[in-house]
UniProtKB/TrEMBL annotation:
Name the record gives this protein: Probable N-acetyltransferase 14
Domain of life of the source: Eukaryota
Residues of the N-acetyltransferase domain: 55-206
Transmembrane segments: 55-77
UniProt entry keywords in alphabetical sequence: Acyltransferase, Membrane, Transferase, Transmembrane, Transmembrane helix
Family indicated by similarity: Belongs to the camello family.
Pfam families given in the database record: Acetyltransf_1 (PF00583)
Locations listed in the record: Membrane
GO cellular component terms, semicolon-separated: membrane
Function description: Probable acetyltransferase.
GO molecular function: N-acetyltransferase activity
Principal location: membrane
Length: 206
């Protein structure tokens, strides 16, 4: 579907449950790949091996001592991702959340924005998810274009020195990263654990 067949508007109260499920589904599609990426980094493997060695003196089962640290690490990582990206954010200074809607009225994507942490940091995308049934149909690009227009308007009204949009992306979301680079965004930083990136941040001056 072409982006021209999509509209973006503020989420209605009766759409909260649908939008929340869409966000949770988006996290579920990513969390296993993020967990695999995180748990196969050398420092993580070293910590898991040390934890397993310690548990062997406490637990009677070697298999349990080996698997328990991995299971706990996976659960902790997934809960963290779901808390960060799988929930509806509170209303922010830029309004929203917004939803992408097809001509038929079907909600197919969700977007939320928030001001940056300091003056000049621009606006940040805090939620961006597209229903799995509507991916690769221009929904993500339409939401991104809407986010850029909102960021410009907010920057002008708030007296920001520049209009800028920052989009955090999980390192395993290669398709999203490619879309952003195709729209003129550049990777500017990352955050993660023990020196290994789990999330990359892309930005663009508007």
């Amino acid at each position: 579907m072409a982006p021209s067949h999509l509209s973006v508007r503020e989420m209605r109260e009766d759409e909260k449950a649908l939008v929340l499920e869409m966000l949770k589904a988006g996290v579920r599609d990513t969390e296993n790949r993020v967990a695999l990426h995180a748990l196969t980094r050398p420092p993580t493997l070293l910590l898991l091996a040390a934890a397993s060695s310690g548990l062997r003196f406490v637990l009677a089962s070697f298999a349990l001592a080996l698997l328990l640290p991995v299971l706990l690490a996976v659960v902790a990582l997934k809960l963290g991702l779901r808390a960060r990206w799988g929930s509806l954010p509170p209303p922010g200074g830029l309004g929203g959340p917004w939803v992408a809607v097809r001509g038929s009225g079907d909600v197919c994507g969700v977007l939320a924005l928030a001001p940056g942490s300091h003056t000049g940091a621009g606006a940040r995308v805090t939620r961006l998810s597209v229903s799995r049934w509507h991916r690769r149909q221009g929904v993500g690009r339409r939401l991104l274009a809407f986010a850029e227009s909102r960021a410009r308007a907010w920057a002008g009204g708030a007296g920001e020195p520049r209009a800028r949009l920052v989009v955090p992306v999980a390192v395993v979301a290669w398709g999203v990263a490619g879309m952003l680079e195709g729209c003129g965004y550049q990777a500017e930083g990352s955050w993660g654990c023990m020196g290994y990136a789990l999330v990359r941040e892309f930005s663009k001056d508007l």
